[in-house]
Amino acid sequence: MSTIDLETARRVAKLARIAVPDDNLPQLAEELSGILSFMEQLNEVDIEGIEPMTSVTPMRLKRRQDGVTDGGQQAKILSNAPDAREGFFAVPKVVE
């Protein structure tokens, strides 16, 4: 069983950009050790011949027809533009 020491817990917190006070490091180390222990238990399960699944209940994902559209809101979107010309946003020229 893998155990996480305080220094490793401190390093993991730093890498994750999580501010963990020193007095909370023992609890974090214990929780991380528990996670690793659970992962080791999962590695013991025989999964030979079992197909991966996306859900515990077999179901097909809902799909919609994939069609390209212009969104039908060009006039509404361009109404917020400070300067629109010929159906497009107009911006100042920045490169000569």
UniProtKB/TrEMBL annotation:
Presence of keyword Signal: no
Recorded catalytic activity of this chain's protein: L-aspartyl-tRNA(Asn) + L-glutamine + ATP + H2O = L-asparaginyl-tRNA(Asn) + L-glutamate + ADP + phosphate + 2 H(+); L-glutamyl-tRNA(Gln) + L-glutamine + ATP + H2O = L-glutaminyl-tRNA(Gln) + L-glutamate + ADP + phosphate + H(+)
Enzyme Commission number(s): 6.3.5.-
Any one Gene Ontology BP term: regulation of translational fidelity
Organism domain of life: Bacteria
Family annotation (Gene3D superfamilies): Glu-tRNAGln amidotransferase C subunit, N-terminal domain
Keywords: ATP-binding, Ligase, Nucleotide-binding, Protein biosynthesis, Transferase
Annotated NCBIfam families: gatC
Protein family (similarity comment): Belongs to the GatC family.
Task of the protein: Allows the formation of correctly charged Asn-tRNA(Asn) or Gln-tRNA(Gln) through the transamidation of misacylated Asp-tRNA(Asn) or Glu-tRNA(Gln) in organisms which lack either or both of asparaginyl-tRNA or glutaminyl-tRNA synthetases. The reaction takes place in the presence of glutamine and ATP through an activated phospho-Asp-tRNA(Asn) or phospho-Glu-tRNA(Gln).
Subunit structure: Heterotrimer of A, B and C subunits.
Protein name: Aspartyl/glutamyl-tRNA(Asn/Gln) amidotransferase subunit C
Organism: Pararhodobacter oceanensis
